[in-house]
What we know:
The protein is α+β, with helices and mostly antiparallel strands. Among the domains are: 1-184, ATP-grasp fold, A domain (Dna Ligase, domain 1, 2-Layer Sandwich), CATH 3.30.1490; 187-316, ATP-grasp fold, B domain (D-amino Acid Aminotransferase, Chain A, domain 1, 2-Layer Sandwich); 784-900, Glucose Oxidase, domain 1. The strands form five sheets. It has an eight-stranded mixed β-sheet with strand order 19-26-25-21-22-23-24-20. Helix 21 (529-539) runs antiparallel to helix 29. The chain is elongated. The N and C termini lie far apart (66 Å).
Amino acid sequence: MKEFEFVRLLDEICEKDVLSAGGKGANLGAMLKAGLPVPGGFVLTVNSYQRFVEVNDLEKDIIELLAKADKDNTAVINKATEEIKVLFESGEIPDDIQNEIDEAYAKMGKPGVAVRSSSTAEDLPGASFAGQYSTFLNVKGKSELITSIKKCWASLWNDRVVAYRAKQKIGSKDLSHAVVVQKLIDSKKSGILFTANPINGRRDEISLNSSWGLGEAIVSGDVTPDQWVINKKSEKVVNEYIAVKKVMSIRKEKGIELVSVEPEKQKEITLNRGERKELLYLALKVEEYFGSPQDIEWAFADGKFYLVQSRPITSLYPMPQPEDTDEELRIYMNLMMYRQAMSAPITPMGIEFFKNMLVGVLLNSRHRKKPVRWFKNAGGRMFVDITEFLKFKKVLDRLESYKIPALMDTEPMTLKALAQVAVRNSTELMKNKKPLISLLFGMISKMGFGMLGLSMAAIPKRIYGKMFPRKAAEKSLEYGNRQLARLQRKRVKLRTIEEKLAFVAKEAPTVSFSIGYGMTFYLMPSFEYMNRAGKILKKYGDDTSGSGKTGREVSHSMTTAIEMGSAELGKLERAVPNSVTTEMGLEMLQMAKRLVQAGEEPSPRHPYIKNFLAQYGHRSTEEIDIGIPTWEEDPTYVISLIRSYMNDKAYQRGIEKFYSDREEAEKTIQNITARLKRKGAGKDARRVEKLLRIHRETFGYRELPKSILVKGIGIMRGILADVGEELKAEGRLDDKNDVFFLFYEDIRTGTDLKERVRLNREEYQRELHRTPVPRVMTSTGETVYYAATEDESDDAYKGIPASPGVYEGPVKVLRMPEEGDRLKQGEVLVAASTNPAWTPLFLKIGGLIMETGAPMSHGPVVAREYGIPAVIGVRDATTRLKDGQMVRINGETGRIEVISSEK
Length: 903
């Protein structure tokens, strides 16, 4: 065929031509070049779309119509996109394009063809656009072909496509659309093949379906196909479902139609063993060629399989890196979900920081220099390989029953999921089980002095805390400030980029472990005061529950106060003094009140805000991630939250509640001691009173180590920002803060880093909106999002009780704390997880529901302090519960009931 400007044959195209042939066209051309069975045809390239738009003067109209479309108003979007479609369908294709289409179609023999959209904004790493654009089957004749091409161009502006682009944060400017014209296979049977299992994520399985006739009936959901899951290596069928296939799509004189399947064929299996094996081999070839799992559409005619489409499977969770390529099954735990109940991704530099922290504490100097394969990065989340520990039955039993005391402040659903995955794969795991002594010796031989040093340092600090409980907090603060001062002194001596990177890597354990745990050791004895008081009360049969139930009947996994049976004792943990978190929230309320009284608005330059940031500006919305700006750097969240307090006068209720809770706590101590005295236990009454008062004085200090630790992270962030400044001066970065979207190895390449930053930022943004996030993964790619739990009814959900009390109110689902201005007084906050940045929002809510979290993690602790009923570990809470639904939340049983669908 002569040289054309607007048309190219499929066999002239490869995967590099995506910008001219679109995703679908480029993939089909690539498969043809690889010798795969793809029907021939041609591609109308994107410059034909651009010329059509230019000749018909459509761009101005498209921009104007889209400008009127409200992304939150479906009806308005539909109207705008329908008008755009009319513009395309009434437009005229220029003669030069028309002539090339005619010649290419004639060269094919003018058969019945499939006309498929092939967009440049298609089959992208985080957005497949599967089924979003238009396809037309069994198109015959010049007139019908031209009409179908224009409809494919118009489908770039389908209402569902416009909405999908908005959700994926893909702009609508500079978009183009190619069209694939391909010989239609008159298939007797057809289907879809995934080269990885899209349900559980396993890369060692394929998922295959099949039905009679053309594939349109499957794609459109008109028929339930036969389905198989097949192991790639053994070729064995893991799962099989033979459906009753009542309808099928067939070609007619023009177009296609849906008809009934003959009764005797409805239950007949569509693929025999040999055919399934042939499709498996084709799947492996396609996946190997593209280097990633693929979603393939296939057709069968005249005894031969054809591949009519292939695109990346974008729904799969990324494989943990570095990837384990040996055959032994490995099991990985989501570290941030387990320790912090955190589902958000971490910036590349945040991952680097945590890796250096763990390696520095756990490994000796010799092993720190070797590749660390047990630390994994997957989708911006950190996973650790704990396979060897899961090979011991006692470990599994304790994980399932949550009976490991050291794990009380961890996320229980992760532990249960780990146990369930290990039990399910116990046969596979036991094949390479090491003797316990060998495992321990191997660990000890690699360990450094970090953990030993921490353990030794804990002894005198705990003794001091026990002897001088009221002075322990002061001592703890002195220790933390000394560590910060040491880091600052060393910081000023750093000169080169390499010195700064090495310093941050070396001091990461100091910041996270020496400061955090070093301060906490002083305070740990104070954690026992409530427990000791509870035991004395129990000796006299004193019931502080208010219900006659013991705490373990209510929940076996709360704080000591709740465990000891105690709605009453729980009041002592509200409005406690000496809590930096509580004081921060109260200061925000007071600021809002003063601003309203003065008739002023909050701004970064206002003295109130400047004073607040001077004290709390080191905090951030995701403060354990070194890559996230602090409030001092970006006070937008603080100002937005204060403004929301001002708008609905929420500050008044919050301030009143704080002082009311403080008075009630004092009355509670008096009531408890008075009851003991009436029972003739004067001496024990005095002991209990002392224990409870010390508990209240010291309870708030638990938040102090985290605050100081975050200041340490801030020092490290400042050093990395200095590195970014130097890289910007060298012309390798556009902005100094781009350094947080790089790994050390990127910086050390010495190359221009702008493109790497762009790609890493794009991946981070995609992952930021991913829900849910796996708690557990395996080396096969299997993703486990939740542990198996008891069934839930349609109008009730079950979670883990985390803060006692019952509350009824409307739901408000928030993805991140920055959305807090949407939250109204008395609503039930539903979130995937929370951290200290969410705490100020707690002053407005009536109840808390979280998908993740541990009873001793930050959210539940603060909820108990504020007297807010809370339930955690509620599966898919952020997607199943909807704004405005009225719910009844029971923080003692973990039950959530939907009372009505709207307020």
